[in-house]
Amino acid sequence: MSLPANRLRTSLRRPWVARIGVIIALFGVWEVAARWWVDPMFFSPPSQVFASLGALFDTRGVPAALRLTFWELGVAFVLSVGIGLLIGLPLGLAPFARRSFMPIVLLLYGTPQVTILPLFVLYFGIGPASKIAFGVSHGFFPLIIAVVAGVQNIKPIFLISARSMGATRMQVLRHIVFPHMIPSFFSGMRLAMSGVLLGVLLAELYVSTAGIGYFTTLFTQSFDPTRLFGLIAVLAAMAIVLNEVVRRAEIHFSRWHMD
Amino acid sequence: MNAAKQQRQRLGSGAVQTAFLIVLIALWYLATTRWRVSPLLLPNPVAVLADFWDILSTGEFIGDLRVTLTELAAAFAIAACGGLVVGYLVGRSRYRIAVFEPLFAGIYSIPIILFLPLYVLFFGLGPASKIALGASISFFPIALNTIAGFGYVDRLLVVAARSMGASEYQLFRYVLLPAALPVILSGMRIGFTVALLSIIGSETIASLAGLGHRIVHLAEAMEMTRMFAYIVFVVAIAATLNALVSALEARVRSAR
Asked: Over the stretch B19-38, which tens digit does the pLDDT of each residue have?
């Protein structure tokens, strides 16, 4: 009689089982709250949200908006990495430039960029360009910092011995700087990805004519919580996947370096 | 000799930084006067400075500043209470850490600003939605750092205190708290920064009052000079608040 209860207790002892239990319980609370407590104008139970995901994708413009947002994220991420490397490598390799400009980079990184979001819209328009630019402005600072830190951590003995053996500048970059930079470069990429996500989504929510920001405003104003929840769930899933990809890459490459 | 060299280098990089700023402002000035960039895109720096003094001397910023700071204080208070309590409860047991820490870390990696439309739907356009969003965003770093602080206290210290007959309160006051405090404090500093960011951000996106709202309002009215002056003001406020919090953190840390 007590066998199933026992089995339940032993399996609950495993943390991941209990974690899934917590998640299921949260969804349960959400379902109950949405069905019996809260006005359906503002809240929608998860069962209904998941059931209507198909209808969400059938809504005209939504798949295109998701594609557009994904594209903005991708372009902004690639640009952030490019610009971050372009600024970070010279700063990391030249001690004087680093001492001079790193305080400026850190100062700019520390200022709240949301205050100048209207300026991005003014300069780049209300189309995808302003989202990409705003995403890049959030993404390339952490990358610069990571690249500079990575280059700085190279043991000077490697650089000195390479130079004394007559390595050219390109050879030093190719065989010493790049391989040693990889772990911190990937952790910079992870930070850049969360920055780009924040920047692009902020700009999308601020003003949008065809992206997901347009649809979140539309669903909010027409009191359609089911599709609003669905859209946000899809975006959150997208963010989780993107974050996970760079995090896996980071783990993989930091281990690769250790061997 | 080495000290003299260091001194010279520091002077050199300081000179480069000053020169960089001067060149930047000079280019800005020249762009607006000589090269005739439209004042709708880039207002004259002198006019921006004049507007900045005007904002400060007339005190028209007080209303918006009060709204933003009230939201910030409420959001941070909620996040700090919730984060500390939850973090303590979770961090006191290995099992609960294993269950909850990955959950919190996973949620924290989602850009929570995504949920702003939902918050606006529930709490309206007023301060309540900003407080709720700021509190939920800054809850996570505080809770995660509190878990890390209490969870990774050296077992030996706890066992030693117990075997010497420390009460539950004494254990908390003299062993756990001092060991965990530095990590918790830096979590609270991060929580404060993200709360400030998300409150200004959500004011920018959808609101009726506050500093973020003022900037958007001026942008929509095409009053660029005043808007630049407000941007300078908000950046200065944010820098001051962050410096204050860092100083407070350092003081508590050293007073320990």
From this structure: 888 888 888 888 887 777 77
Domain boundaries, chain B: 2-37, 58-255
Indicate if A189 and A79 belong to the same structural domain.
yes
Same domain, yes or no, for A22 and A97? no
Residue A74's domain comprises: 53-258
Mutate to test the interface with A, among B121, B207, B222 (most CBs of A within 10 A): B121
Q: Using a CB–CB cutoff of 8 Å, tell me whether B222 touches chain A.
A: no
Q: Are A80 and A192 members of one domain?
A: yes
- The answer to whether residue A227 is domain-embedded is yes
Sequence-ordered list of residues with C-beta below 8 angstroms from that of A144, at least 6 positions apart, any chain: A84, A87, A88, A91, A105
With helix as H, strand as E and coil as C, how does chain A read?
Answer: CCHHHHHHHHHHCCHHHHHHHHHHHHHHHHHHHHHHHCCCCCCCCHHHHHHCHHHHHHCCCHHHHHHHHHHHHHHHHHHHHHHHHHHHHHHHHCHHHHHHHHHHHHHHHHCCHHHHHHHHHHHHCCCHHHHHHHHHHHHHHHHHHHHHHHHHCCCHHHHHHHHHCCCCHHHHHHHHHHHHHHHHHHHHHHHHHHHHHHHHHHHHHHCCCCCHHHHHHHHHHCCCHHHHHHHHHHHHHHHHHHHHHHHHHHHHHHHHHHC
How confident is the model over A89-118, as pLDDT tens digits? 888 888 788 888 888 888 888 788 888 888
- Give the total number of structural domains in chain A: 2
Asked whether residue A43 is domain-assigned, the answer is: no
Nearest to B201 among A22, A202, A232 (CB): A202
Does residue A78 share a domain with residue A179?
A: yes
Q: Is the pLDDT of residue A256 over 60?
A: no
Please indicate whether residue B85 or residue A1 has the higher confidence score (pLDDT): B85
Please say if the pLDDT value at position B1 is more than 70: no
pTM of the model: 0.84
Nearest CA to A220 among A43, A24, A12?
A43
Residue listed under structure tokens 């000799």: B1
Name the CATH architecture for the domain at B58-255: Orthogonal Bundle (1.10)
Domain for residue A44, yes or no?
no
Whether residue B125 contacts residue B67, with contact meaning beta carbons closer than 8 Å, is answered with no
Q: Taking CB atoms and an 8 Å cutoff, what residues of chain A touch B212?
A: 114-115
Chain A with chain B: Cβ pairs closer than 8 A: 124
